[in-house]
Structure formats: structure tokens, C-alpha cells
């Protein structure tokens, strides 16, 4: 077989066989198919797409390029959750302990942030001492002992995705459904959970800009999960504005702690309770929203989170401390009206420039910097009322404030934001 022939076949819109896909992926990981041919192949997929059968073969070929985690030592139905990326997305920090507080085990591998999107690992690492790299046996033991662990994805999982994702990142081939679906699902399948909740983000701050594409991606991933015997549900969630009220690693830990104590803003708490309800149901535990919310209000979810932090070497005192920055600058409304838009992409990029995110993979983070919003979409605002506070260790110039203000959209009538747009199961 020759890579050039397979690239040409895909370029001409033809369907590749399972053997051909396996050969390409194996060869890529082995180094016999070079980056330049894989980039051409990714671009051919970008323009010509793949059939469901091809995506499934691609996914399983990728799974075969690494370790597969065996979670069978943990009793019960293990449920995993994955988000396709967002701004201010602290959902895992709350959802994992909340679900575990109902004795449903959560063994979760998370990723880092890049560009305008944040990563759960970076948020956890803003807690002094928290270890994201622990041995697999210890990870499994911890889930057996306390029911929850969130760690970094093992380097040995899905080698093909590591190489391919880096290549896609620099060849403009990230945002295509066959490649996103196979990337996400190969990792989820290899990570070993019995059931998977997929949070497919939609909007300006997400890979999927419109609901039709998000629906197609979600359905593709649900079908892939089901085909290999994993109960899979996808929710389409709004990423036109940041999730919750903060962007930034430590700020998001603090917001997560508020939500875990029943003190979060109503909308985001309800959204997380709805996701928890779906995850619990995947493990055959049926609970009402009120029963789920009770675990935020009675301290059980917070206790689980603190247990996880301690088990992974984190300092609980440090966990609860507030942010330490050189500059705190409030931003005020330029007119009276209703907040009609807080574009997630723009504010994610703004937070990145403060040091809260990485422009390139090798960038260091400033865990303390970020943005806390006092107002969200749909809320009314008076001229000169505070809309947000910028937390920074670099001086905030007037130009930066003007830029920040230019992203805030204020309209004449109230719009009603909706977190979960659709459920696909
Ligand atoms: N998240 C992933 O893990 N892979 C993609 O391709 C996109 C988002």
C-alpha cells in the first residue's frame, strides 16, 4: 500500500476500507507515514468527509495505537464526561464530585487548555500540591476508596491522537466532524468507562459554530460509543457566552467551590444539576433535580471534592484562598439596557492575554489572572454599573479596558439564555 494512493482516494471522495485506514494510522504512529502525507490526508477528510463506517474504523484504529485502561476493578457503572471545549468551563470540577457523592464512581482523565479554551487540569493545578500525574493503580485505588479522581490523560493512551491533534492544530484541520469525533471517542473508549456523557459545545467560542453541525457531531459520537457497547448521551450546550461567571484558573476553582456549596448563580447550578442527573441515569441511578441539588446544599458534593483534592496531594487551605494579583480593575457599563452578548471567544482570548490561557502549548500560565463577571446575558444593567472585574498581574491599560468594553453587548430588550440546547441519546 502507498500513502499517496490513499490520499488520492480520499481526495477524490471515495470510501477507504478498514484495512487502508488501519494501515495509514499504524504507519503514522510508526513514523513510516510522514507528517506531510498525514496533513494532506487530514485536509482531504476536511473537504470530502468520511462515511460513518470510515469514522468508526478510524476511531478504532486510533484506539489500537495505545493502552486501554481497565477499570473493571472498580465496582459499579463507571461514567465519564467529556466537553468539546469551552470558555470558563468549570463543569467537571463540580460534576465529578457531585456524581460521586451519589456513590457512582467517576474515573476521569482531563486535558489542558489551549488558545481561548481552558482545561480542567490547569484549574486543578492552581491548587497547591494537587497531583495530576498519578500511577494508574493509584488512580484506580483512589476511585475504589473515595469514588472520584480527576487526573491528566496518560501519555500511553491513543498515541495517534497526540500526533494527529498537534498536526491538525497547525494545518487548519481541527474543526471537521470526522476528525473531532474520532479524536474524542478514541480517548473516551481507551479510558475505559462504561458510560459517557458528551458535552458538545455550540457557539462562537466552540469548534461547532451552529446547532446543525453540533447535532451531527454529537450523533456521530453517540453512534461510535454505542457501537462499542458504551452507553453514550450527548448534550448540546451553549458556548456563545462563557460558562458561569468567571474565566481563569483560580477564579474558576473559587466559583466551583461556591457552586459546590449551593451558592453559585442559579443558572449554572441548574445546568450542572441537569448534567449530573443524566450522568447518574447512565449509571441507572434515577434522581430528581431537587435530589441532585440537595447534594450541593448539604455539603456532600463539596466534601467529595475536598476528599479528592487531599487524596491527590492538594492543600485544602490553599484550595479556599482567594486570588492573589497585583491589579484588580472593574469595568462598567457604558449605557443602560440588557446584556445581550458576552462573546465567549473574545473574552477567552482576553483572559489568555492576561496569562490565564496559552497561545501555544509551551506557554506558562498565570493561575491567578482572569475575569469575574458581575452580569451575564439576559440581565439588566444601568449605565456605570459594574459588569466585570479583571484580575491581572500585568498592568491594565486604558486600551485594554476599551477593548474589553467593546466586546460587551448591551441591547434594549432582555434575551433569555439557555444552557442545554438539546439532548441526543
Ligand atoms: N477535543 C478533542 O479531544 N479533539 C478534538 O479534535 C477536538 C476537541
Which structural traits does this protein have?
alpha/beta, Transferase, Pyrimidine Nucleoside Phosphorylase, Chain A, domain 3, Pyrimidine Nucleoside Phosphorylase, Chain A, domain 2, 3 domains, binds uracil, Pyrmidine_PPase_CS, thymidine phosphorylase activity
Summarize the entry for a quick read.
With 425 residues, the chain is of the alpha/beta class. It folds into three domains: 61 residues, Transferase, Pyrimidine Nucleoside Phosphorylase, Chain C (Transferase, Pyrimidine Nucleoside Phosphorylase, Chain A, domain 3, Up-down Bundle), CATH 1.20.970.10; 240 residues, Nucleoside phosphorylase/phosphoribosyltransferase catalytic domain (Pyrimidine Nucleoside Phosphorylase, Chain A, domain 2), CATH 3.40.1030; 85 residues, Pyrimidine nucleoside phosphorylase-like, C-terminal domain (Aldehyde Oxidoreductase, domain 3), CATH 3.90.1170.
Amino acid at each position: 500500500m502507498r500513502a499517496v494512493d490513499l490520499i488520492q482516494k480520499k481526495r477524490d471522495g471515495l470510501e477507504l476500507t478498514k484495512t487502508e485506514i488501519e494501515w495509514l494510522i499504524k504507519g503514522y504512529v510508526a513514523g513510516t507515514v510522514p507528517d506531510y502525507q498525514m496533513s494532506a490526508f487530514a485536509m482531504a477528510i476536511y473537504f470530502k468527509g468520511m462515511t460513518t463506517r470510515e469514522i468508526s474504523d478510524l476511531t478504532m484504529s486510533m484506539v489500537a495505537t495505545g493502552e486501554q485502561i481497565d477499570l473493571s476493578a472498580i465496582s459499579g457503572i463507571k461514567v465519564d464526561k467529556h466537553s468539546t471545549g469551552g470558555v470558563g468551563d468549570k463543569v467537571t470540577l463540580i460534576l465529578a464530585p457531585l456524581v460521586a457523592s451519589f456513590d457512582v464512581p467517576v474515573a476521569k482523565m482531563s486535558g489542558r487548555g489551549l488558545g481561548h479554551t481552558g482545561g480542567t487540569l490547569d484549574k486543578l493545578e492552581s491548587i497547591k500540591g494537587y497531583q495530576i500525574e498519578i500511577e494508574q493503580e493509584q488512580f484506580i485505588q483512589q476511585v475504589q476508596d473515595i469514588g472520584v479522581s480527576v487526573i491528566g490523560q496518560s501519555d500511553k493512551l491513543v498515541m495517534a491522537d497526540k500526533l494527529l491533534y498537534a498536526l491538525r492544530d497547525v494545518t487548519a484541520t481541527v474543526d471537521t466532524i470526522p476528525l473531532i469525533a474520532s479524536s474524542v471517542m478514541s480517548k473516551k473508549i481507551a479510558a475505559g468507562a462504561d458510560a459517557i456523557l458528551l458535552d458538545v459545545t455550540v457557539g462562537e467560542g466552540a469548534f461547532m459554530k451552529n446547532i446543525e453541525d453540533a447535532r451531527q457531531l454529537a450523533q456521530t459520537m453517540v453512534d461510535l460509543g454505542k457501537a462499542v457497547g458504551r452507553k453514550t448521551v450527548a448534550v448540546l450546550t451553549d458556548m456563545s457566552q462563557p460558562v458561569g461567571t468567571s474565566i481563569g484558573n483560580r477564579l474558576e476553582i473559587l466559583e466551583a467551590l461556591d457552586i459546590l456549596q449551593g451558592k453559585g448563580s442559579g443558572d449554572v447550578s441548574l445546568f450542572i444539576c441537569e448534567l449530573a442527573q443524566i450522568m447518574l441515569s447512565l449509571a441507572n441511578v434515577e434522581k430528581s433535580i431537587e435530589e441532585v441539588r440537595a447534594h450541593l446544599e448539604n455539603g456532600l458534593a463539596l466534601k467529595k471534592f475536598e476528599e479528592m483534592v487531599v487524596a491527590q496531594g492538594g492543600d485544602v487551605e490553599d484550595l479556599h484562598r482567594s486570588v492573589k494579583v497585583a491589579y484588580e480593575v472593574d469595568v462598567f457599563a457604558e449605557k443602560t439596557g440588557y446584556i445581550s452578548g458576552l462573546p465567549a471567544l473574545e473574552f477567552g482570548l482576553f483572559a489568555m492575554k492576561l496569562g490565564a490561557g496559552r497561545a501555544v502549548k509551551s506557554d506558562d500560565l498565570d493561575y491567578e489572572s482572569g475575569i469575574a463577571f458581575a452580569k451575564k446575558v439576559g440581565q439588566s444593567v444601568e449605565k456605570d454599573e459594574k459588569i466585570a472585574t479583571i484580575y491581572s498581574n500585568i498592568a491594565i491599560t486604558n486600551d485594554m479596558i476599551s477593548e474589553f468594553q467593546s466586546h460587551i453587548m448591551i441591547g434594549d430588550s432582555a434575551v433569555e439564555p439557555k444552557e442545554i440546547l438539546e439532548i441526543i441519546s
